[in-house]
Amino acid sequence: MKGKIQLDITIQDRFDSMYENLFSQRRRYTPYIISSFLQEEKFILYERFKAKLGNLVVAPKLDSPKALFEFLKRHNKDFIIFEDEILNSRKEYIDVLSGAICSSSDSNEPRKVQYFLDNFIFKGSIIISSIRTKEELLRESKLKDILRDCIII
Fold this sequence. Notes:
globular, two-stranded antiparallel ribbon, single chain, 6 helices, 7 strands, alpha/beta, five-stranded parallel beta sheet, 38% helix
């Protein structure tokens, strides 16, 4: 393979990188999606990661886009992890979540989390766990912006 460099990055390396990113001094943290997180190796690393991180907020099942907006606003500077398959939610949920995850594609400035006329800039970090594979997630057009701005493990 002339001209190509082969990198062997393990799942453990990816979790270590995620942990280091969350404790770096950054203005905005990289959001992550842990795909196929029930796969045995990923699940073990995921549970270790959560225990090591310690100070994260596990999002409850939210019953409306407004509840999601209020939850993100209340936990604006926290490490939040979604374990309830939020990426399967209706487009209205995805739109609110996109504000906390995505940057503007032309300026790289953070988007505002918005619900009708109320809005704010999210300053925390989001990790989403999903039982779906990376390939399944990539087929969802409503997730295009979120997937563009997240690192998928």
